[in-house]
Specification:
The complex is a heterodimer of chains A (296) and B (294).
Chain A (H helix, E strand, L loop, with lengths): L6 H25 L5 E2 L5 H4 L1 E2 L3 H8 L1 H33 L4 H12 L6 H12 L4 H8 L13 H27 L3 H9 L4 H23 L9 H7 L5 H4 L2 H11 L3 H30 L5
Antiparallel strand pairs in A: 1-2
Chain B lengths: L1 H37 L3 H5 L13 H7 L2 H32 L9 H13 L4 H10 L7 H4 L6 H12 L3 H9 L4 H12 L1 H17 L2 H6 L8 H15 L5 H9 L1 H31 L6
The chains are: A mainly alpha (296), B mainly alpha (294).
Chain lengths: 296, 294
């Protein structure tokens, strides 16, 4: 049988997808060369002046870059930690519930926000936290002066991290729940025979049983250190909280597409992309080494 | 002694369930509140009397929405994008996943394609070069700008490829023996055997298309072409946030739109709520899909 004759069909199947990836991924990668140009949209990539690393050196001179870098890493790291711990605690709690109806109801409800866009969730959050929103109404009823949450640099990071937990904790718990379901039930039976309490079973069976999952998720999250969540912050922030909420991605959007400093914004994005690439490769290598994890 | 222990066990179990119910209530609360506001009388909503149940029940806001041509139109732009984009995603996912699921022995170039895919997944030129590419191609203000840049959902391809790889090898061998070609094998053997997985990745891409707002904002230059999420982003979220430090007069103006905005948000959530039961049925399966490897 001639399996070799199949090859051209395999290439044909892959062709449309590969072409589209070339046009919309590979071409823009080369287009990122404008990071080394004083790019003028009228002159195009061939006509604009090459300025070497000037865009990059400029980046290190302005004060903005320190602020956005700090904000990005701070918000991203807080989210990473929250995403490791909150879903874990939630999954361990849910795992102890024996009533299936309650378990299913709780799961159905907490997974839902994951599927709703940040545009809508931000719309809801902004309305609730506005001066005439439900939160400030409640505070007023308690005799506390209303707070402009989304205009406050103290509150903004709290709101970002809090609302992110709201959206994702349930969905993130699925991985832990699956790992918990994979623990051999006879371990619990034996522990019960020996008189272990539920708390002891949790400490000595459940937690060690999912330890490898926790390590894997922690390792893979290294790749997210520069991803503070564009969609969310873009929908929640405003000029009053740039100080605490402006991140690399929102900065690139504003400087590049709003102020049309294409070359400079591309340089910022490219630098982020390069560091992100190194972080992801590093996290995959660590995950492979310590948790025997492969993507392919 | 034994009795005591069961009593305390019961108590802690009750506390646990109460906590979890409270958490689920907190998760759902904001959504319920928005639904309640959208169904309330304007004055009651503005006065902050609406909590989780509508006050002065009225469908006025929803009636107003239907009369807003831009909103209705953007809803249909979104529907169009979901149908077109979802089909393109589906077709390309299957077309790429099948040849990539062949072993390197059967298809030696497979690993080269795989590296190419991995590379596009990990590295991107960023938003500005993409913007310039789409501009050069003359796709601004067309639906193609919303469906073609993300036409290949690489992550879904990898998921489905792993699923195909876990189907028994004997399937392919038996097929080849009977003289089946690659297209027949893909469409008549592999696709029918993996319908739940294909449904999963398709639902993911449908939700992704429905929820996307950024491409609509960047590639669409006028309100008439906005998909729904972009419309909400630009005309509800942005204006609300810009009015944070607004004057009393503007604030009053904004208050009068509170129920209308809530209704817009609810309407744009409805399609997600409709597919949610299907999503829930499949997504756990989807996450596990492709996680088991030989």
């Amino acid at each position: 049988m001639n399996l070799k004759s199949f090859h051209k069909h395999y290439h044909l199947m892959l062709l449309p997808g590969v072409l589209l990836l070339i046009v919309f991924h590979v071409v823009p990668m080369f287009g990122a060369a404008i990071a080394f140009q004083d790019f003028k949209i009228g002159r195009g990539i061939w006509g604009s002046e090459w300025i070497g690393l000037e865009n990059f050196t400029y980046l290190f001179q302005i004060r903005d870059s320190g602020v956005i870098f700090y904000n990005t890493v701070f918000i991203a790291v807080c989210k990473i930690i929250a995403h490791l711990i909150v879903p874990l605690v939630f999954a361990l709690m849910l795992n102890e519930v024996r009533q299936m109806a309650i378990k299913r109801w709780v799961q159905t409800v907490v997974y839902l926000p994951h599927f709703i866009s940040w545009v809508i969730l931000a719309g809801i959050v902004i309305d609730m936290l506005s001066l005439n929103g439900i939160v400030n109404q409640t505070l007023q009823a308690l005799g506390i002066k209303p707070i402009l949450f989304l205009a406050s640099n103290t509150w903004f990071p709290v709101i970002v991290i809090g609302s992110d937990i709201w959206k994702e904790f349930g969905f993130a718990a699925i991985v832990y729940l699956a790992a918990l379901a994979g623990i051999n039930p006879s371990l619990y039976e034996a522990a019960e025979m020996d008189g272990a309490t539920r708390l002891q079973q949790l400490r000595y069976i459940s937690l060690p049983g999912i330890a490898s999952t926790i390590v894997l998720l922690a390792t893979l999250s290294i790749g997210n250190v520069l991803n503070a969540g564009f969609d969310q912050i873009f929908n929640l922030y405003n000029p009053l909280v740039y100080e605490s909420g402006d991140i690399i991605d929102t900065y690139v959007y504003r400087v590049g597409l709003v102020q049309a400093q294409y070359g400079f914004a591309t340089a910022v994005g490219l630098l982020k992309s390069a560091i992100g690439f190194v972080l992801i490769v590093l996290s995959y290598r660590l995950a492979y080494k310590y948790a025997n994890y492969r993507i392919f | 002694m034994v009795r005591n222990r069961t009593v305390s066990a019961r108590l802690s179990e009750a506390a646990l369930i109460a906590t979890l119910l409270l958490i689920s209530f907190l998760s759902l609360g904001p959504v319920l509140h928005t639904v309640a506001v959208s169904l309330s009388d304007n004055a009651a909503a503005a006065g902050g009397f609406v909590k989780l149940w509508p006050k002065g029940f009225t469908l006025e806001s929803y009636r107003k929405i239907i009369e807003e041509p831009h909103f209705v139109h953007s809803f249909f732009v979104s529907v169009q994008r979901v149908l077109l984009g979802g089909s393109i995603n589906l077709a390309l996912t299957v077309l790429m996943a099948y040849p990539l699921s062949r072993s390197p022995k059967e298809f030696p170039m497979r690993n080269a394609y795989m590296w190419f895919l991995l590379f596009t997944m990990l590295f991107s030129g960023g938003i500005i070069p993409l913007y310039l590419t789409v501009k050069t191609l003359g796709m601004f203000n067309t639906i193609w700008a919303l469906v073609l840049p993300g036409a290949v959902p690489v992550f879904n391809v990898v998921l489905l490829m792993n699923f195909f790889r876990n189907l028994p090898k004997e399937l392919s061998e038996a097929g080849y023996m009977d003289g089946a070609g690659p297209w027949y094998m893909m469409l008549r053997v592999f696709v029918p055997l993996s319908l739940p997985s294909i449904a999963t990745v398709t639902l993911f891409s449908i939700v992704g298309h429905w929820n996307a707002f950024f491409d609509g904002m960047v590639f669409m230059r006028s309100v008439e072409n906005y998909p729904l999420q972009t419309y909400i982003q630009q005309l509800v979220v942005q204006t609300n946030i810009q009015e944070l430090d607004s004057t009393q007069l503007e604030l009053l103006q904004k208050i009068s739109e509170k129920t209308l905005n809530a209704a817009k948000i609810v309407v744009s959530m409805v399609p997600i709520l409709i597919v949610y039961p299907f999503l829930q049925k499949y997504f756990i399966h989807g996450i596990m899909l492709g996680s088991v490897k030989e």
